[in-house]
Amino acid sequence: MEFAEVVGIRRSIRFFDPDRAVEREKIQKILEAMRLGSCAMNAHWLRAIVVYRDDLAPETFEALKLPVAGVVMELAPVHIYCYGDLSVIQNDHGKQPKLLIDMGALAPSHGWTHRFVDEFVWPMLLDPMSKSPQYPIAMAFDNGGCATQGLLMAYEEGLGACWTAFNIPVAKEAFGVPDHWVPHYVLNLGYPLESREAGGQRPRPPFEDLYFEGRVGNPFRRDEKVVEELKRRKMIQASAPFPNRQQELRDLARRLGLPE
Amino acid sequence: MLDRPVESYDTVAAWESGLRTQWGGNPFAEDPVKLRTLVEFCEFVARDPDAVIAFCFLRKRATGERFQSKQRRDELLRRLKEFEIAGSSGIDARRRRSHVVSFLSHNGVLIY
Q: Which residue of chain A is at minimal alpha-carbon distance from B109?
């Protein structure tokens, strides 16, 4: 699938085939995509724990579920719990930026030298940043980007996925999560039981309400020619609601014995 | 156990209205098992439908603000599990549970 179409077909899937296992190699591809995501200072804060629903003790699984996520977690055969490792910067002590210099990713043309890392980047930037209250927010931003690459890979592989929250203390105990890992979300993963369109692309706020040019309040004007191109490339697709969606939802609920 | 027809309870009317809005049609006429299962559950927990929903809510002592009690929901969840396995097994048990969950969620209470 072309990248634009992968972006276009991605939407949260909440009805999975509960009995169809996900191939281990597809899970690995998702994790590989996460690992290649962009992160400041090559820090790689993202940690993930792959959990197979059917391997969980029933009482643990029950305790992991939150009310609004319960059905999704029950239907998805694979759950990828995502965390951020807060210890990365302190443990690394400036080694990653030096590695980026050695690898030719950072260059003196932009001010990057080993000495600059020792004299400025570590003591004035990374060390204080990693002790600041803003640090987990910065980490979460990068982790969201990395995790989204994995999410898109799932659709490239013909799977569906949905992020949900989970019971943090129960997961910590059940999966041996260290104290310095910050919980994000769990990626529920499986083969979609609902149609690929899943009722159409979800409504979004108007483009010009979200993005600006030069100054807040000056909307980035949308060029309709670009919109048309992205429609042709299947990134912008028919928007929800689809006329047959309610019937599809009801059929799925009845097939799976779920509430109506 | 119910002292009047099950359809006459406010929470059952809310359930019917929610189902009708979501799916259209005449939900209880098309699927009488829904109401029958709710009546069985009410008998199982010895509460009428309005009392089942009311059981899930408490008021804060200080402000009088109404809120859903986690403890009460957990208690109801425990009884729902007992009810589910008491009647049947497999997909039938799941459907039996789902009718009750549907009644709860159309009244603003979700337990899983």
A: A67
